[in-house]
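From the methods appendix. Each design record in this collection lists the tokenized structure first, followed by the designed amino acid sequence. Records were kept in a plain field format so they could be parsed without special tools. The example shown here is representative of the layout used throughout.

RECORD:
FOLD TOKENS (341 positions):
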């Protein structure tokens, strides 16, 4: 059953590009939100036996167990306050393959749900570049009306980056806490420019009092990196929290964090637990279906699939959506999880 479910996934993913998927329509007319994030799981890969080294009968092979990132997404509908609609359906899925595969999988699910007919669509995530680089592709591929699409940086991740910036300044604990709470409220009130200006002012004042270089002028410094973080997301209109609350949109990704914990951490991240890649991919999909309440629907799809096709496709080829693979080839470096280890 697990193998056939993966067949269903692959056929559905490839079907989106010729628009031959059936449309469920579960999100039509609803305010919808989707979030993407990654977890951590150790995948086991047996080491090749060394030539000339005898192996004892019954001995277990040696293996590597590197950490890999399962990429998950969550789709749900929201109420007038931006919270999840009570007792409403949710959709969870993910893969251990690359970011492009994740984007295709998400596009397939959104297409089936009739996301282009939703009242609004909110993309919410933390600051991971691989996530934001693919949201624009999703909007174009799914033909979403741009006046109904909103991009939100999770407020609590933004607050964390604010704390990191203040931590680079030589402030007393009391002063740092005071500035943090003040700036966090400004960030919540959509005043991100004032936040950046205040951080620069604190940096200049510290430079005058203690001497030395201005951290904001050192491009490689952590402080400068955090300033660029706020400017990047602010200029992209992802920090408009006052407007998001006014329209009843979610401002945090707590539901996604909980999903990673339930799907991955409680089952696939235990001490001393190592997964083969094939079994990890199956378990990730099955737990997503079970915990989202889509188990019975999945079983029906599996049954129909067995009647039509008994082949076992476990992977599919995803196009390069952002040019990362081409750049990695030029630099002779492989981006995380794009190639098998």
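DESIGN:
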């Amino acid at each position: 059953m697990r193998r056939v479910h993966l067949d269903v996934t692959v056929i559905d993913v490839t079907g989106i590009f010729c628009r031959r998927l059936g449309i469920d329509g579960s999100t039509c007319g609803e305010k919808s939100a989707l979030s993407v994030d990654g977890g951590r799981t150790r995948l086991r890969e047996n080491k090749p036996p060394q030539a000339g080294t005898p192996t004892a009968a019954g001995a277990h092979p040696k293996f590597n167990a590197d950490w890999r990132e399962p990429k998950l997404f969550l789709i749900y509908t929201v109420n007038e306050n931006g919270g999840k609609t009570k007792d409403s359906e949710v959709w969870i899925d993910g893969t251990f393959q690359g970011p492009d595969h994740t984007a295709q999988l998400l596009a397939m699910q959104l297409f089936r749900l009739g996301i282009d007919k939703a009242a609004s669509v909110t993309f919410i995530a933390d600051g991971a570049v691989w996530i934001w680089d693919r949201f624009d592709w999703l909007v174009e591929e799914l033909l979403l009306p741009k006046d109904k699409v909103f991009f939100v940086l999770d407020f609590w991740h933004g607050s964390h980056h604010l704390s990191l910036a203040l931590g680079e300044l030589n402030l007393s604990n009391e002063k740092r806490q005071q500035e943090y709470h003040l700036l966090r409220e400004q960030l919540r009130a959509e005043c991100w420019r004032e936040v950046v200006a205040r951080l620069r002012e604190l940096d200049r004042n510290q430079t005058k009092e203690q001497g030395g270089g201005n951290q904001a002028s050192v491009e490689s410094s952590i402080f400068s990196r955090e300033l660029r973080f706020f400017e990047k997301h602010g200029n992209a209109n992802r920090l408009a929290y006052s407007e998001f609350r006014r329209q009843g949109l979610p401002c945090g990704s707590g539901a996604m964090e909980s999903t990673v914990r339930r799907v991955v951490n409680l089952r696939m991240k235990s001490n001393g637990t190592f997964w083969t890649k094939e079994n990890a991919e199956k378990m990730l999909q099955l737990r997503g279906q079970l915990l989202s309440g889509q188990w019975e629907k999945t079983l029906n799809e599996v049954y129909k699939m067995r009647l039509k096709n008994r082949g076992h496709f476990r992977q599919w080829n995803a196009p390069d959506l952002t040019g990362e693979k081409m750049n990695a080839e030029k630099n002779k470096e492989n981006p995380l999880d794009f190639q098998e280890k």
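APPENDIX NOTE: Residues 2-44+64-154+252-318+325-331 form a domain with the Nucleotidyltransferase; domain 5 fold (CATH 3.30.420.60).
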